[in-house]
Amino acid sequence: MPLKLYAYAFLGDFILLYPVYALLFSDSGLTVPEITSLLVIWAVSGLLLEVPSGALADTLSRRALLVAAPLLGAAGFALWTAVPAYWAFAVGFVLWGAREALESGALEALVYDHLDHDGAAEEYAKVMGRARSVGMVAVALSMAVAAPAFAAGGYTAVGVASVLACLACAAVALTFTERRAAEHDDDDPTGYLDTLRAGLAEARTSPKVRRALLLVPAVTAIWGELDEYVPLLARESGAATQAVPLLVLLVSAGAACGGLLARYGDRMRARGFAAILATGGLALGLGAMSGHLAGFAGIALAFAMFQLGGVLADARLQERITGPSRATVTSLAGLVTDLCTILALVVYGAASLVLSHSALFALFGVPYLVIALVMSRKRASAPTAREASRP
Length: 391
What we know:
By secondary structure, this protein is an all-alpha fold. Helices cover 75% and strands 0% of the residues. It has helices spanning 2-13, 21-27, 32-59, 62-82, 86-103, 106-117, 124-173, 192-205, 207-226, 230-236, 244-260, 270-289, 296-320, 326-351, 357-363, 366-376. The longest helix has 50 residues, at 124-173. 58% of the residues are buried.
């Protein structure tokens, strides 16, 4: 299973459009507020479909949903390539949001239940950390390949390559083996609505699950949104268009390293986790405000810390879920993340009218410092893959 998962993660993120699609929008005549509105459409699409798709993953075949998801992405990228206009970009983002909603919850639940079925649930953080790192490596390689591909064939070349990667990703998903951790009891929900209600009830009635659920968006929402503006920050910092993918590559490499560090999360308590977020927040602000391209090394360090924190928060959530609606509860975390992302996008887009990208990156590092301050005062264990087993 891990090797197939890594292949799925790689192909799903080996999208040559990633480092240049913001530039595609800009070169098509869109302003920063218009680009931000597209990102909001993306986030809203995922938000509306997040929980319903999670309940589907607990009711239907998770493998089938993971096959369908990249096909939606392929359709969206094909539309962007063929029709570079605002309406086409908007439709493409709706399809992209639907893709992410289908994967969210379904992938985590499939992996965790597969490992739990084999008696290896404690490996979840390591496996998912590696999968996310593989995905970031794919993003990084796409940055490196995008530069010569763009030079050779422009946006058409990178668009076609992106569609092919999505098709290959769907083919890999066909090979997944789906297992459930245990047979359902007679009282377990079997229908869609019953499954949805069971997941909502677990998140509402279990304080441990609720706290773990809320930590996921607290760690992941902001840096996930900032990732979309890295190319524009690079251009503002004086980088030529051909060099932008290389700077985004550096940032992506940092995030990949963060995922590989997840296996050491068991050693961290609350103050250690707080130190991770504080380091990320400080590195983000200092790197963005440096005024030099060398500052992107600081941004790469920040993204490494945020990726590490996100993997550990997800691992704690999976360990704390005990009911049959694992994908539904995980999708609830995705829903809250989408809400926070939309808020961050709106704030970023409005503030971009008066502030530079560098100033905005620095300001968006402040919430991580606040979260770190709050967590440093707690004596409870940090979010780790084994936390659920501790008293």
